[in-house]
Amino acid sequence: MEQTLDHSAGDGTHALDRQLPEQLFSALHDIGFDGQGITRATYGAGENAAHHLIEAAADKLGLEIRRDWANNLYVTLPGRDRSRPAVMTGSHMDSVPGGGNYDGAAGVVAGLTVLASWTAAGFVPERDVTVMAIRAEESAWFPISYLGSKAAFGLLSESDMATRRNDGAGMLGDMIRQSGGQPDAFAVAALDPKSIDSFVELHIEQGPVLLERDCPVGIVNGICGSIRYRSAVVHGQYAHSGATPRSYRSDAVIAGATLMLALQQEWIRREDAGQEMTLTFGVCHTEADLAHFSAVSGRLDFSIDVRSRDIVLLRQIDEFIHEQAKLIEKTCHVRIALGQQTSTSPSISDGALVQSAIDSAANMGIPAICMPSGAGHDTALFATQGIPTLMIFVRNEHGSHNPMESMELSDFMKGCAVLEAVLRKRSTAA
């Protein structure tokens, strides 16, 4: 007998099974634990095992299962009218090297938790609801943002298939084939934007906002875009530290530091003017074999990561980077090679979905705040395809991309309750 899920009392988590996510998170930890953190490498053994785990759990629930050529996994609860565009949710299953257990995986587990509650209650949506376990979101492995999502929409090229994984494990096409995929079909789109009603992604927050605000759930109103120079190099000239006067030096470290300080000061100026952005130099090192304390450094490798929801601001900062690089080349007698730029576009959450999440949280008495996402997510790629999107954040201590990720299951269940309510409303609307 079909039942309607009742969320009229409490926080809605009573309608959701806590045992399933507990079991899945425990199994995911066992799959990815590397002795210190979690490593589920893109198109590696860890990511493959995580996808098999989700597939097995979905099979036990009697859900439809399919994969595309890139081995993205789709788990579907059929709706009454299968001709209508589907409601989708999900996230990625890979991790950064030595990361945490919840980044990405929480969104897939959340979607499966919702569908498990619906099948247990005999609830049938009006349209298909699909949980997507996405491949290769973490660009720590391949220098391509949203790789799995791009594959699903047929947005990868033949040259992308020849991209080598950053740890030297192999080329993308070969690793897709080894995982059971079909890289020769790289131009095939498994997803048609017209067949997707909406995409809602639950994810741990990767910053401290929810923790500092003592709030378990965040409703994301937009995702930052980015401009990145992953492999920038300052080329100077090695020289003796005592025998080379300042005016004769081509000091790569001083040049790099000058550029970084100029960009940092520009960030402060922009922030003081009320503009929103972040700036990070995540890589900065001299050559280990040549650099030493009594030599002027001849080379500095570094990276630049700029993020903002304002695409005009991103372009302005990029122009500033190039202007400062040219200026510093002249004043410091060096050559600055910024290298290839990679970028992502900002996205704005769908207003109706945002309001649905706000109302759902309020109706269940779940504290929630609206906030932007500084980190990029697969949701942004769905948004660029014209699909209405939303993200739901769950409070997480100690940030992300490190072994200390610390999401409480009670917070996760609150996020799941909001996700369930949004998906239910969207999948039953006329």
Keywords:
six-stranded antiparallel sheet, 430 residues, 2 domains, EC 3.5.-.-, 21% strand, globular, alpha+beta, Alpha-Beta Plaits, Aminopeptidase, Hydantoinase/carbamoylase family amidase, 17 strands, nine-stranded mixed sheet, metal-binding
The dominant shape is globular
Supply the CATH superfamily name of the largest domain. Answer: Zn peptidases
Radius of gyration: 23 Å
In the CATH hierarchy, the architecture of the largest domain is 3-Layer(aba) Sandwich
| Share of residues in strands | 15-25%
- The CATH class of the largest domain, by name, is Alpha Beta
List the helices and strands and how they pair.
Blueprint: H1 19-32, H2 45-60, E1 64-67, E2 73-77, E3 86-92, H3 105-121, E4 129-134, H4 147-152, H5 158-161, H6 172-178, E5 196-204, H7 209-212, E6 217-223, E7 225-235, E8 239-240, H8 252-272, E9 278-280, E10 284-286, E11 295-296, E12 299-308, H9 311-332, E13 335-337, E14 341-344, E15 347-348, H10 351-364, E16 368-373, H11 378-384, E17 389-394, H12 409-428
Helix pairs in contact: 1-2, 1-3, 3-12, 8-9, 10-12
